[in-house]
Amino acid sequence: MADPARLSINQATTREQHSLAQAIAAYSQAGVRGISIWRDKLADCGLDEAVRMIGDSGLGVSGLCRGGMFPGADTASRQANIDDNLVAIDEAAALGADCVVLVCGGLPDGSKDLAGAREMIRDGLGAILPHARDAGVPLAIEPLHPMYAADRCAINTLGQALDLCDQLGEGLGVAVDVYHLWWDPDLEAQIRRAGERTLAFHVCDWLVPTTDLLLDRGMMGDGVIDIRQIRDWVDRTGYDGLIEVEIFSAENWWKRPGDEVIRTCQERFEETV
Question: Does residue 1 have a pLDDT over 90?
Answer without folding.
Answer: no
